[in-house]
Amino acid sequence: MLKILALDRFTCLLVLMVILATFVPVHGQAALVFGKVTTIAIAILFFLHGAKLSREAVVEGILHWKLHALVFTFTFALFPIIGLLAKPILIPLLGQQLYWGFLFMCFLPSTVQSSIAFTSMAKGNVAAAVCSASFSNLIGMFITPILVSLFIFGQSKHDYDPTSSIIEITLLLLVPFIAGQLLRPYVFPIMQKKPSIVKTFDQGSILMVVYGAFSGAVVAGLWQQVSWTTLIYLILACSVFLTIIMLLAFFIPKWLGFNQQDQIAIFFCSSKKTLASGVPMAQILFIGQPLGMIVLPIMIFHQIQLMVCGVIANYWSKQKSTEMQINQDSVLD
């Protein structure tokens, strides 16, 4: 319950950032300074993620290649395919730029922290979730720009080269992550003494990026372009999309014969998209585009997925505890 309430607090803070950007947007020279501070915060966040991930978990997780292959297929194949197939329905409802944002969301890697947290909460294969979610984020730094180049800018006749974006994303996200891994023996003991530091940078950097992105969008006239009707359509589209993906992520691992713990890890790693990596990527990939319109779909999808996964993980956790209690009673009898 406390985890779900924490997610709700973060949702409220995200909404607050949007409201703040609507009425008090940062702009001009202040926006440039704020953007540089945000970039530093994101780099520190991924440094901490690198320091937090144990090498033992990496080795143990890597060996479970079938699970990772299925999560990879969901994240970078099934999501994009469904997103592209939905184009004839979504463009009339959302418009071109919001559809680009929706498609960009489909191209993003999975979440890291929430995938692991929900897998742990539901008593799934945590080691596999750690490795699968982390691998998804690392490989996504290269795959997402290529997919954007092929299916968004390729269709818009935009002169776009993914190579420079991959380099920028690597410098911003991957290099700090590797540095964190290398310095883990020195940094991780400090993190254990201050366990809230990753959460602070995780949520804080996202809030900063969202405020900066929406400030720029508001200055460019975002709320004159997005009506309440369009916003409701977007929420419905994200909800339906998440439902389809979750049903597939629930049944396909069963059909393929994965055990229950692996099924839980696959479900949570396959059905989510990252906001923490997604917004910084959008800043690099969509220079000159209305960034607020691009990140709005992933913001909405992210909040829906957190709330739904929180309920499901809590239910599975209680179900597992009940089963364990029944087994213990049977043994005693």
UniProtKB/TrEMBL annotation:
CC annotations in GO: plasma membrane
Transmembrane segments: 7-24, 30-48, 69-86, 98-119, 126-153, 165-183, 204-224, 230-252, 294-316
Taxonomy, superkingdom: Bacteria
Pfam families associated with the record: SBF_like
Coiled coil: none
Gene3D superfamilies per UniProt: 1.20.1530.20
Keyword Transmembrane appears in the UniProt entry: yes
Sorted UniProt keywords: Membrane, Transmembrane, Transmembrane helix
InterPro entries (UniProt xref): Na+/solute_symporter_sf, Put_Na-Bile_cotransptr
Entry protein name: Bile acid:sodium symporter
Source organism per UniProt: Acinetobacter rongchengensis
